[in-house]
Amino acid sequence: MIGIEKLKITIAMALFVSQSWCFTKPALELRGTVMSFPFWLGTTMYGNMWKGFSENEKRTDWWWFDKNYWTDLFSDMERRHLNALAFLHPHPYPALVDLPQYPEARYFPPDLLNKYREMFKWIVEEAKRHGIKLYFLTWNICLPPNFASAHNLPEFGDDTPLTRAYTRAVVAELFRSFPDLGLITMAAETPPGCIDFVEEAIVGGLKDSGANPHLIFWTWCSYPWEAQRILKAYPNTTLMHYLQYEQFFLPKADPRIKKFSKECGNAPMIALGGPKSAHGYLFWGDPEWARETVKSLKEQNGIGFFIETYIADPWLAQEAFSRYAYDLGDKYDEGEWFEKIEQHYNCPGMGKELLSGMKNASSIIPLFLLLVHSQTDHYMPQFGLPLVFYLEMPTLSSYIFENVQTTDEKGYLKPNLGLCYPNPDWGLKVTSVWDYAKGKIPKGALTPPQIADDLEKNALYCLKITKNLRNRIKENEELTSLLDRLELNAYLGLHFSSKIRAAVGWAEFKLGKNTAAKVLENLRKSIDAWEKIVEITNRLYPGDVSFWRCEIASPPPWRQNQIWYSYASVRGHWRDHLEPFKRELMIVERELKKGREKARLPLWEELLAFPNEKLELIFSEDFEEKNEKWIWGECASLTSKEAINGKSSALLDSRKLKGEWHFALRTAPEAIKLQPGKIYQLEFDYKIIEEGLDYPDNPFGVAGRTPTGGVPYDIGTGRFWDGAKGSFGHRVVLLEPKNFEDYFIFFSLHGQGAVVIDNIRLYLLRQ
To answer: Is the pTM of this model over 0.90?
Structure first.
C-alpha cells in the first residue's frame, strides 16, 4: 500500500510534468523504448541469451500475466510521452501463433498457447489505450530449433525455399492475429546482407497479412540501395540506424544517419541507442546531453528514437530523453531538473548540487572513450584494462569498425557486417598516446594529457560534491546508493587519468626519454583508485556480475579484427582485477629495468595467471631433443638456428604446405593426464618466424582436445595468436577439462606461417 508521503510526491511529480512540458508538436514522431521479449522459445542466439526466461514460459502465474504490471508500465510511458515499445527476440512467433501446416514449429501445447495469445491480445489493447504501439524487433534468418532439427537445417542463416515459405507464413499469421502490431527487422545477422530473404519472406508475409502493419527496417548490414528495395517493395516502411553504434561517447547523433537518409532519397530515419555497454553497471544521467543528442538527431532527418538505457539507476536518463524527444523547448533549462531530482530522491535543497555531480560523473566514460575507443557492445573498460590497451587501442579518430578494415572505391565497408560506412568525422580530432609522444599532434586535436586532466578534474569535483552531500543526508538509502554510484564513476576517472599518464610515460620511455619513474608513480596512483573502486563495488554489487573482457593473446600492434575476436564472456568482479593490476606494476617495474629496446608490456593472460605458490609443476619440455612425449606433425621439427634458448627449440612451419589447418605438435596419450574438475596453467615462450600469410588474425593455435568429445569440447583461453615477424613473447593458457579424461595438448597452424616454441611448463592449480 502506497504511503501518504510517497503519494504526495507522485502527485507532485505528475503536476510538475504536466505544467513544465509544453504540449506542442512532438520533437520526434516516434518515441520508444525496448525490452527483451521474455521467452526462450529454444533460441540459442548470442550464447543462449534468452534461455534465462525458460523457467517461466511454461507457467501462467508469472509477471507476464500480471495486468497491473502492464498498466503501470504503459501509464508511466504515457506520462513520459512515449508511444512505442519494442520487444527484442530473434524469432518470437511460436509464442503467439500456430501454423497447422508446420506442426514441427510448435513450441507450446494448444491450451498454453491460447492463454498466451489471449494475454498478448490484452497487452496490445492496453498499450493502445495508453497511446503506445508495440513492435517486435527480430533477426534474420532464424528458425525455431525444433523446426530446424526436423528438416536437418541449421537454426540460423540457411536461406532455402522451405525457410522462406515458413517465415512468410508465420509473419503473415502473426499480423493477421495482431493487426495493431508493428515490426522492426533487418537483413542481418544470420547471415549479413540477406536482403532477398527479407523482401520475399518478411515483406511478403506483411503483405499477405492484409493488415499493412508498420515496418521499421533496421539498416544494420545493409547498403542504401538495399534499403531502397524495401522502401519500394513496402511503402509503409521507415528506416532505422544506430544512434552511436553500441557506445555513447558524444552528445550527438551519428553523422552516418543523415548520409544514409540522403542516399535513400532523404528518407526519414529512426535511431536506436543510448548509454549502455561501457556505461553498464554505472550511473549515467545528463539532461543537457540528452537534449543535444535529440536535437542532433532531428537535424539529421531523424523522426524517431528507441532509447536503450542498460545502466544502473536509469531513471534520469529515461526521463531526460523522453522529455526532449517530446519537447526540445527553446533552450536547456537545468532548473526543472533540480526539482525533479529533489522529488525523486526526497532531498529538498540538494537538486542543484546533485545535478552537477551527476553531469560530472556521467562525463567519465565518454571522455575515456575518446582516447581508448571501441564501439562494440563487448567493450567494457569500466572493469579495467591493462596498460598496453591504452597505447594500442584506436582513438575516436583512428577507429574504423570492429571487424572490417577496408573500404571499396566508393567509400563503403566491404563486406558490410554492420554499419556500411567507416567511422565518420565526429567533429573532434583525438591524438593517440604514441602520436603524442612522437610529437605528431594535429592542430586543434585533443591530447592524452588533456583527456587525463579533464577526467581528473571532473572526478575530483564529483567527489567534492558527494562528500558534502553525505554530511547532510540522514537515512536515505536511495540517495546513499546514488552517491556510491557517482563516486564509482569518479574513482574510475581517477584510475583512467593515472593510467593514461602512465601510458604516455611508457611511450616516451620507449622513445628514449627518462620517464620510468613517471610510469611507476602513475601506476601506483591507478591502483590506489582501483582499491576505492573495489570498496564501492563490494557495496553496490556484492556478488559476481557478467561482463566482457578482451583477452587478446597477440603482441601489439593489433589489427581491429584481432581485438574483435578476442572478447571473452566473464563472470567476475572489479575485485578480481586488483591483484592483476598490482602484478602489472611489478612486471612493468621489472621490464623498465631491461631498457627501452627489450621492455614490453604484459597482456591480460600474464596478469591473470595464478601465482607460483598456488601451482604444482606436472610437465615440462625444453625441446633439447625429440622424445616420446610428443607426436610430431609434418610441419614440426627441431631447430637450432632459431632456438629461443638451449641448443634447440620446436619449429612449427607450414609455409610449404597447402590446406587450411595443420596439426603441428601434440602430446602423446601417456604424456599428460588432464582431469575434469581441475584447472591447469600452460606456459611457453614463442618467437614468430613468419606471421600468418593466409589467416593473419589467428594463424597460431594452442588448445586441449578430447578425441572422444571432439572439437566442440576444445579447451583453453587465448586459443589463437599472431604477431609481427621477429616478435617474441610468453603465453599463459588456462585449461579446464570438461567431462572427458582423454585430453591432449596440441599446437596448430591456420594456413601458412611459422613459429618457434620452447620452455613449455604445465602446472596444476592446487585446490
So the answer is: yes
